[in-house]
Design goal:
The protein is α+β, with helices and mostly antiparallel strands. Helices cover about 40% and strands about 25% of the residues. Strands 1-3-2 form a three-stranded antiparallel beta sheet, with helices on one face. The chain starts with a strand and ends in a 5-residue tail after the last strand.
Length: about 200
């Protein structure tokens, strides 16, 4: 559900001005509903999926790239963007850093328009899909080794997206469990063997 607030003002123009200040959203994206008695309701009026697409198009056009953006909605709370461009490696960056930065920008933008939890994902040239496959293989292989040897294994540091993939892949395993350790860029997953009482 998109954000809405109640405003007291002497006119619709003043209500709009106050709404822009409170919501930190431009006036063209706010609809003002006059409730009477100097009371107004300000509603954010945007198509989230389309707004995100326009934002990405602005960035890619400014860089001067040829691109295609596909938008997929999954219910009301999930939007997936897939970009194919003439310069996929540039947009992905080293170890996916640029892709992560673009993902964060688009999540933050769309988060300003809604009060509900919104899942927003961005993939460029199937990098994320391929990375998920690699991480799932790594998780399974390492978990089997930990279950067999009963020796904990610490994986190399990963970003939050990559750690979530590992956690989810191993969430239903009974003989191992996962924990994140460390701070910031050094945060890593440790796969641990479940210790059974004799």
């Amino acid at each position: 559900m998109q954000k809405k607030i109640s405003i007291e003002a002497t006119s619709e123009e003043e209500a709009l001005k106050l709404s822009v200040e409170k919501l930190h959203i431009s006036a063209d994206k706010i609809f003002i509903n006059d409730l009477g008695d100097n009371k107004y309701e300000a509603l954010v009026d945007v198509d989230l999926a389309l707004e995100g697409k326009r934002y990405l198009e602005g960035i890619l056009s400014a860089i001067g790239l040829e691109y295609q953006i596909e938008v997929r909605r999954n219910g009301d709370d999930e939007i997936n963007y897939v970009i194919e461009s003439s310069e996929n490696p540039l947009l992905i960056g080293i170890r996916g850093k640029t892709l992560e930065a673009l993902s964060l920008l688009i999540k933050n933008l769309l988060g300003t328009y809604t009060k509900d939890k919104l899942i927003v994902s961005l993939d460029i040239g199937n990098y994320r899909a391929n990375r998920i496959r690699q991480l799932e293989i790594l998780a399974t292989k390492t978990a089997k080794e930990v279950a067999k040897t009963k020796v904990d294994a610490k994986l190399k540091p990963m970003n939050s997206f990559e750690r979530r993939v590992i956690h989810e892949k191993l969430s239903d395993w009974h003989d191992v469990y996962t924990e994140s350790e460390g701070e910031g860029e050094e945060r890593a997953i440790v796969i641990k063997a479940v210790k059974y009482e004799n």
